Amino acid sequence: MNEFLLIFRRDVKANGSQPSPEQLQSVMKEWQNWIGSIAAQNKLVSSGNRLADEGKVVKPGAVITNGPYVEIKEAIGGYIVIKTGSLEEAAEISKGCPILKAGGNVEVRGVVPMEM
Amino acid sequence: MQEKELLPHLFRTEYRKIIAVLVRHFGFDQLSLAEDLASDTFLIAAETWGLKGLPENPVAWLYAVAKNKARDQLKHQQVFEKKIKPALVPRDESFFSVDLDLSDENIKDSQLQMMFAIADPQLSVESRIALILRILCGFGLEEIADAFLTSRETVHKRLTRAKEKLRQSGMSFSAPTHAETGARLETVLISLYLLFNEGYYSSSRIGVVRRELCLEAMRLTLLLADNENTCTPAVDALFALMCFHSSRFDARTDENGEIIRYDDQDRSLWNDELIAKGNYYLNKASMGSKMSRYHIEAAIACLHSEKANDGLKWDKILSLYNQLLMQEYSPVTALNRTYALYKVQGKEIAIIDAKKLDLSGSHLYHILLGHLYQGVDDQEAVRHLQTALTLAKTETERKRIRKDLSQLQAVR
Question: Can you tell me the mean pLDDT for B121-135?
């Protein structure tokens, strides 16, 4: 089993209108059920974090800019860590991620193990 | 006639108290001695009461005999210490002033201490539970063997080895303080949780023993909940969980001891008093900031104790199972979550998730799939139930599966 980081990117403004409480509730459930399904397969390493929209980028020469991203679509919204037998399997699991329905994407990256 | 029932009853309730107090007095390395003295006390009682009838206050009588036994033992020991081991220094003055404190309070404290002393993470879970049953619940070897589906000899060996290990590790036998509570309470709670589950879920035991395991687990957990040094929200949550589960005791087996599934249970047999107690302790448990697995499990059990059986309830249950799995994976939780998923989203979706579980070695997995495939693909359902039949470990389970199979085949 190898560990993989799943990075969620989402176009925060893609939806435009404010979601209703019911929609929010169903979004939450989709996420819960997706992560629950991974955990039920004993493949969840960390349920990760949801990142705040605001941020700063520190560049050489003490340059600090607001917003971590050039384009809003590239913003990282959150991440989890899973363990699977292969990169392909990790990608397969990512197909169920609710972010895809919201016009976002999932980047799947293998974690380099410390013990080779 | 009366003596016949009284003595086993007293053995159940007093044996463990006497042992705990003796160990507190003599030190934890003298556990075997304490057991011998307590057993002797009851032997003397059996003989004396058999000959002369019951004393006016049997409990006080037992305590008096135990005190005398302890005093005699110390006299022997003092001779031994003085003549054979002159170099040995007594641990403190009170060691030789033998007046066993058998007050209610000291008994409770001693039992609590014993619970913490036994919960040594070095010991296997089986050993810990066997020790709890033997020392804190006064179970006989036969009964423990019965509870573990093993032989008397195996239990005896397991207990001897465990006691030797405890003796070697030199665990001090002192009142659990706040600091100690934190470190060991977890192990204590797991032991009690497993003790309860052993009684609640294993379908192989005879009804009486099963229920007694559960009651003992509850009694010990309540001891923790009632003590100010050990009453954490996790303890309350665990006790709430036990209350909710045991509220269905009368409804979950029929007169032949066969299991009645949740959906088929007669709800009027659920014990409202225990449900109310569960609610009280679950409320109390929510005072803390930490959410333990017992909190989540108690919340699930609480929802199960609601008589309404609508979709909203299953929605909440599914969400709680998701949380539980995120905290800690277990195959049984994974299966339960899949069942909840079926209740919320239907059989097809649940089947897709079930197939990802990689639990094909478990009969429970195949029972679940057998259930999910009913009405979707009956042939597949039969296939899974037949696999479950070959994997099931006990006759009670096989009986239940055969029943399901014949029902399914009757429909087709």
Answer: 85
Average pLDDT over residues A80-85: 95
Q: Do the Cβ atoms of A40 and B319 come within 8 Å?
A: no
Most confident range (mean pLDDT) of B75-89, B126-140, B235-249 is B235-249
Please work out, in degrees rounded to the nearest 5, the angle formed at the alpha carbon of residue B120 by the alpha carbons of B118 and B122. Answer: 140
Residues 33-52 of A with CB under 8 A from B: 33, 35-37, 39-42, 44, 47
Interchain CB distance below 8 Å, A40 and B353: yes
Q: Do A40 and B338 touch (CB under 8 A)?
A: yes
Shortest distance, CA A40 to any CA of chain B (angstroms): 5
Please indicate if any CB of chain A lies within 8 Å of the CB of B326: yes
| Helix H or strand E encompassing A91 | helix A87-94
Higher pLDDT, A45 or B399: A45
Least confident of A44-53, A75-84, A100-109, B96-105: B96-105
pLDDT digits (tens, 9 = 90+) for B283-293: 999 887 788 99
Is the predicted pLDDT of residue B89 greater than 60, yes or no? no
Q: Residue A80: in which H helix or E strand, if any?
A: strand A76-84
pTM strictly above 0.90: no
ipTM: 0.73
In angstroms, the CA B402 to CA B334 distance is: 24
User: Mean pLDDT for chain B?
Assistant: 83
